[in-house]
């Protein structure tokens, strides 16, 4: 027999706790309006189930960032002393009272959360739209992107109990919107098959051929990258090339590229597949994705012999509508020995996600960077108008390029001399301030720019990109045909390959890997890059930012110079 006298106090304590939380709600996040291109189609159906993710306040975010600065700045006594997984955990793991407070709130509302990250700083739960509206004092509606037709259930504001503001950083998905377009959308152009067969060592001069067709050999010539095989098996290069199983990297195209341009590489040196969130790699030719083929062919084709990991992300996300962006970082953060370099050619406009979410994702990159991982992202292909060309009045920064803890890579064109590619996204973040390593370089550019475009960008924001690399006419094999590809999607894997080869030499010499690159690039490595001083990145009905001597928001500090980078790295 149930003891009613025992049950009743427990029941009433839950009711009282729930009533207390409801009476003391506080606005936590809000968006001023619907993002450009989205239309509110009205209230979302109440019975639809939503998967929410809660970011718990971490133990010591500022301490982590300070430690990252110490281990990544060349002049620091701690330079190169990268942190272990456990050491990062002391900064990232929430305090016990934080987890207790948030879980108690959920329990009073009949909800149970699941831990989603290695350090317990992300938890998740499911509930209906109608319950979420009450729980968060919100108004979830269906929004549709006019151009792509992509729909999402979101609210423009939500609240949480005032007692949780010191414990709960954000709830997702709420006010952040999905990216209607990805940064990783390289442009394909047909190419005659016989061009592939031309040898750049023939009577045709490299500059003439490579201006028309940029092959792995051309990239090696341009940046003086050696073909010497890497020797360190512990050195890994990861390419985050597949999302939602829409990008497949067939081995057949890779083998054809290697057969023609890198006969010195063993044909069995392909890649290791890592699947996340139900990702696949079926090798069906007509499912091959341009992005995947590009990343695979220009990492393995340039990072001679460096063990390469191809990351395929499915659609069974644990991070809600972040589409695997956080899942990948959580996955790699959970490893005792993550790959030393990660290149990604996807992203979105900064204004589509909330400031709080951008900060939290950026800190996830800081956590992995502190482990000695170089994280590179393409800057985008819309010039000053964002990830893709669009109508705008003020300049549109991209994310994650605006995050100060990643290395953003812009694009160039032409073999010799190089100039900036007009599509190369660049500018200044509206969310993140100028980081310590960029203060001098950015100030010098703004002084030369003067009052040009005043009011169109945030002059106090973190500038991007940091560096650049070839971004036009890269030749790939796609679905059995030879194609040219344009976009900063080309540039990130190229620069990442150079970093991986440098790491191979460093490990062989008994030295720490480069890890978080930016403090090195803006100091010791600044003179080891080819400064690009011509061109611009038009958008928003302007000519965009002009390239100038030194750092600029189109090509960053410049493109790689192998011999000088080797010397700058102390080799």
In short:
One of its GO terms (biological process) is proteolysis. The active site is at 291 (charge relay system), 295 (charge relay system), 489 (charge relay system). By secondary structure, the protein is α/β, with parallel strands linked by helices.
Percent range for helical residues?
25-40%
CATH architecture of the largest domain: 3-Layer(aba) Sandwich
Regarding quaternary structure, how should these chains be classified? single chain
Query: What's the number of structural domains?
Result: 2
What is the CATH domain class of the largest domain?
A: Alpha Beta
Task: Give the termini distance in whole angstroms.
Answer: 78 Å
Q: Write out the CATH superfamily name of the largest domain.
A: Peptidase S8/S53 domain
Unreliable stretches: 1-17, 189-204
Keywords: Calcium, Glycoprotein, Hydrolase, Metal-binding, Protease, Secreted, Serine protease, Signal, Virulence, Zymogen
Function: Secreted tripeptidyl-peptidase which degrades proteins at acidic pHs and is involved in virulence.
Signal peptide: 1-17
Domain Peptidase S53: 213-571
Secondary-structure map:
Blueprint: H1 4-23, E1 25-30, E2 38-43, E3 49-56, H2 61-72, H3 85-92, H4 96-108, E4 114-115, E5 122-128, H5 129-135, E6 141-145, E7 151-154, E8 157-161, E9 168-172, E10 187-190, H6 193-196, H7 206-212, H8 216-223, E11 237-242, H9 251-261, E12 272-276, H10 290-300, E13 308-313, H11 325-333, E14 341-344, E15 348-349, H12 355-369, E16 374-378, E17 398-399, E18 407-413, E19 419-420, E20 427-433, H13 439-449, E21 461-464, E22 467-470, E23 474-478, E24 481-486, H14 488-508, H15 518-521, E25 529-530, E26 559-560, H16 562-568
Parallel strand pairs: 11-13, 11-14, 12-13, 14-16, 16-18, 18-22
Antiparallel strand pairs: 1-8, 2-6, 3-5, 3-9, 4-5, 6-7, 10-24, 15-17, 18-19, 20-21, 23-24, 25-26
Helix pairs in contact: 2-12, 9-10, 10-14, 11-12
């Amino acid at each position: 027999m149930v003891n009613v006298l025992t049950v009743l106090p427990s029941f009433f304590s839950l009711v009282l706790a729930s009533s207390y939380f409801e009476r003391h709600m506080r606005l936590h996040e809000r968006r001023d309006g619907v993002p450009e291109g989205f239309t509110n189609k009205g209230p979302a159906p109440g019975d639809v189930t939503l998967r929410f993710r809660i970011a718990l306040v971490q133990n010591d975010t500022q301490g982590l960032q300070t430690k990252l600065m110490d281990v990544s700045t060349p002049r620091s006594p701690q330079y190169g002393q990268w942190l272990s997984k456990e050491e990062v955990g002391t900064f990232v793991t929430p305090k016990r009272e934080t987890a207790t407070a948030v879980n108690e709130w959920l329990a009073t509302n009949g909800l149970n959360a699941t831990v989603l990250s290695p350090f317990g700083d992300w938890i998740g739960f499911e509930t209906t739209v109608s319950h979420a509206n009450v729980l968060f004092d919100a108004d979830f509606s269906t929004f549709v992107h006019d151009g792509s037709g992509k729909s999402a259930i979101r609210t423009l504001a939500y609240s949480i109990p005032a007692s949780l503001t010191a414990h709960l950083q954000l709830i997702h998905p709420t006010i952040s919107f999905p990216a209607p377009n990805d940064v990783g959308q390289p442009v394909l152009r047909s190419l005659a098959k016989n061009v592939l067969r031309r040898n750049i060592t023939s009577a045709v001069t490299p500059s003439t051929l490579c201006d028309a067709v940029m092959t792995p050999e051309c990239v090696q010539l341009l940046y003086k990258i050696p073909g010497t095989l890497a020797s360190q098996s512990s050195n890994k290069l990861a390419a985050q090339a597949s999302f939602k199983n829409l990008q497949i990297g067939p081995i057949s195209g890779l083998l054809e590229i290697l057969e023609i341009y890198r006969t010195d590489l063993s044909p069995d040196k392909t890649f290791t597949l890592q699947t996340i969130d139900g990702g696949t790699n079926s090798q069906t030719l007509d499912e091959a994705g341009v992005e995947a083929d590009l990343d695979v062919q220009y990492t393995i084709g340039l990072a001679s012999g460096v063990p390469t990991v191809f990351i395929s992300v499915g659609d069974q996300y644990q991070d809600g509508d972040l589409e695997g962006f956080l899942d990948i970082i959580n996955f790699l953060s959970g490893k005792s020995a993550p790959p030393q370099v990660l290149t990604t050619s996807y992203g979105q406009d900064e204004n589509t996600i909330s400031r709080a979410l951008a900060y939290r994702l950026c800190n996830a990159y800081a956590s992995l960077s502190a482990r000695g991982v170089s994280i590179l992202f393409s800057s985008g292909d819309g010039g000053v108008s964002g990830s893709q060309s669009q109508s705008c009045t003020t300049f549109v920064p991209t994310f994650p390029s605006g995050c100060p803890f990643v290395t953003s890579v812009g694009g160039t064109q032409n073999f010799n001399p190089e100039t900036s590619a007009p599509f190369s996204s660049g500018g200044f973040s509206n969310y993140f301030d100028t980081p310590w390593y960029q203060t001098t370089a950015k100030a010098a550019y703004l002084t030369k720019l003067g009052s040009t475009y005043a009011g169109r960008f945030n002059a106090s924001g973190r500038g991007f990109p940091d560096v650049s690399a070839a971004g036009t006419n890269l030749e790939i094999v796609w679905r059995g045909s030879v194609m040219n590809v344009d976009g900063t999607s080309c540039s990130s894997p190229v620069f990442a390959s150079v970093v991986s080869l440098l790491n191979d030499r460093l490990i062989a010499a008994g030295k720490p890997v480069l890890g978080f690159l930016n403090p090195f690039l803006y100091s010791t490595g600044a003179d080891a890059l080819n400064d690009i001083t011509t061109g611009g990145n038009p958008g928003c009905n302007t000519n965009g930012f002009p390239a100038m001597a030194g750092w600029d928001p189109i090509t960053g500090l410049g493109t790689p110079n192998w011999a000088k980078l080797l010397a700058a790295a102390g080799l």
